[in-house]
Design goal:
This protein is of the alpha+beta class and 232 residues long. The chain has a single domain, classed as BirA Bifunctional Protein, domain 2 (2-Layer Sandwich). Helix content is 40%, strand content 16%. The chain has helices spanning 12-23, 27-32, 34-59, 133-145, 148-160, 209-219, 221-231; strands at residues 64-65, 96-102, 112-118, 121-128, 164-168, 189-195. Strands 1-2-3-4-6-5 form a six-stranded antiparallel sheet. α3 crosses α6 (209-219). The longest helix has 26 residues, at 34-59. 31% of the residues are buried.
Length: 232
């Protein structure tokens, strides 16, 4: 890459690498192909992060953060899986995943955008996968007596645009809350996020993927701003 700001789409080799990694998810194969990992995964991903990150800052919020560190704290998610407590001991993630977030501290603790893809396609998540304890209580209070109507309006708007809204976790209304409240269903959530329609894999090889991602992020910006309001 001559310049990290010049993103021209992920090369076809990116999809080929991810396909082969899925078929050869072992350390021996990966170690033999580290050069390709650097060239076809990390380098174009850095350019993608900078280009999209700057666009997100200028169109959605100046506070959106992106970071090129590769130690797990940056926007490019680590390829290494934490398999300590999992039955599947495959050592590598076979999707290229990036994240852009707004807030201080660890990236996954704040509202943001998560973009992932492999050779079968990809998609974009917006929001916050799981509230921490204090955020969850603030969210519940807002559902019943704060900006509950705004939360409902945002969710309905996203669903009308074919974005799937997720975060429902509990089977019963939390103790201390009225299960007959008109928005009691929202009290079953322990996070709040939206998922874009699927994006074809070949789209990621086109420089226009930046515009595609940005359009989806703008469509889901109402949720992002809502969550910033709740969690700040």
């Amino acid at each position: 890459m001559k310049n990290l700001n010049e993103f021209s789409g992920f090369p076809n080799e990116t999809l080929e690498f991810l396909t082969n990694l899925k078929l050869n998810n072992n350390r021996e194969w990966f170690n033999r192909h580290k050069k390709q990992y650097q060239e076809f995964i990390l380098e174009p991903a850095k350019s993608f992060v900078v280009t999209l990150g700057e666009r997100l800052q200028t169109t959605i919020s100046k506070g959106i953060r992106y970071d090129l560190r590769l130690n797990g704290a940056g926007s490019i998610m680590r390829i290494y899986r934490d398999v300590r407590f999992k039955k599947d001991k495959s050592p590598y993630n076979t999707r290229l995943r990036t994240v852009f977030w707004e807030g201080t501290g660890k990236k996954m603790e704040h509202p943001g955008y998560f973009i992932g893809f492999d050779a079968s396609g990809g998609g974009i998540y917006a929001g916050l996968y799981r509230f921490n304890k204090s955020e969850l209580e603030t969210y519940r209070i807002n559902v019943i007596s704060g900006i509950g109507e705004e939360i409902t309006k945002v969710i309905r708007s996203l669903e009308a645009q074919n974005y799937k809204v997720g975060g429902e976790h509990y089977k019963r209304t939390p103790r201390g809350y009225d299960n007959s409240h008109p928005r009691a269903g929202l009290l079953l959530f322990n996070g709040l996020y939206a998922v874009s329609p699927a994006i074809e894999a070949k789209t990621f090889t086109d420089p226009k993927i930046i515009d595609v991602c940005l359009d989806h992020c703008l469509n889901m910006a109402s949720l992002h701003h809502l969550l910033i309001k709740i969690t700040s």
